[in-house]
Every structure is written in structure tokens, then in C-alpha cells.
């Protein structure tokens, strides 16, 4: 009995280790995606900044205040999409200890269900026998017995 308990504990610990490893792998992938996306964003921002500085220098040297003001407004209106996190719901298989009490209750229920099914089957047989012995007037009555049997079978399923 103790060996079974130790084996169950080892199985649960193995599941825990495997689940933690899967979580760590998922986290590593998500962090890599985050870092790559952030580096790309930084690169794009740097390019846009250099582009705007070049344009500003050109407008400044041309002393075109109107174009400079338009560029300033465009810079103020710039929107950058930042990284977002979303919660993803997924199913995870876990172990649950089935207590001895629960096991006994399950077995009792299974026995009760099997006994009830057996009782219903014996009632079905006796009904068929009674119909066949008392109503022996031809084909119509045989069809009737089949209908009664099938309706009883439908109730037990």
C-alpha cells in the first residue's frame, strides 16, 4: 500500500515538473517575442526620428516656418502601437486524488446501477414471455410484443 502511495506521489511530482517546464518554455518564447518586437519598435522609432530631424533641418535651412509647424503637429499626432498582453484561457490536464471513500461510493453506485439494469432486463424478459403465451393470435400480437420490449429498452438506456 505504501508503494502505491509513493508511486502516486512520484506521478504527481512528475506532472508538476513537466507542467512547470512547459510553463517556463512558454514564458521563454513569449519573452523572446516581446524582446524582438521591442527591438523592432526601437529601430522603427530611431529611423522615424532621423527622418524627421532631416526634414526639420531642411525646413529650418529653407526658413519655411509653415512647413516646420506642420511637421511639429504631425510629430505630436504620432501614435505608436505598444506591446500588449492578453490572457489566453486554455485547458490543462491535472491529477486529482480519488479518496478511498469516493472509490467505495463509486463502486456502490456502479453495483446499484448494474443491479437496476439487471432487474429491468428480467422484467423485460418476463413481459415478453407473458405476451407470447397469453396473446398467441397471430402476427399482430408478435409485433406488439416487440414494440413493448423496445419501449422498455429505451427507458433503461
TrEMBL record:
Keywords: Coiled coil
Residue ranges the record marks as coiled coil: 97-124
Lineage: Eukaryota, Metazoa, Spiralia, Gnathifera, Rotifera
Keyword Coiled coil: yes
Name of this protein: Uncharacterized protein
Amino acid at each position: 500500500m505504501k508503494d502505491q502511495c509513493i508511486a502516486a506521489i512520484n506521478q504527481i511530482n512528475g506532472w508538476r515538473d513537466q507542467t512547470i517546464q512547459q510553463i517556463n518554455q512558454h514564458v521563454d518564447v513569449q519573452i523572446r517575442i516581446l524582446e524582438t518586437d521591442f527591438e523592432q519598435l526601437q529601430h522603427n522609432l530611431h529611423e522615424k526620428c532621423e527622418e524627421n530631424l532631416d526634414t526639420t533641418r531642411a525646413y529650418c535651412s529653407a526658413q519655411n516656418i509653415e512647413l516646420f509647424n506642420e511637421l511639429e503637429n504631425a510629430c505630436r499626432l504620432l501614435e505608436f502601437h505598444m506591446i500588449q498582453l492578453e490572457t489566453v484561457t486554455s485547458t490543462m490536464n491535472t491529477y486529482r486524488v480519488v479518496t478511498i471513500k469516493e472509490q467505495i461510493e463509486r463502486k456502490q453506485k456502479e453495483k446499484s446501477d448494474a443491479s437496476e439494469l439487471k432487474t429491468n432486463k428480467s422484467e423485460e424478459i418476463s413481459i415478453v414471455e407473458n405476451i407470447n403465451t397469453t396473446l398467441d393470435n397471430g402476427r399482430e400480437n408478435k409485433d406488439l410484443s416487440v414494440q413493448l420490449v423496445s419501449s422498455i429498452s429505451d427507458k433503461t438506456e
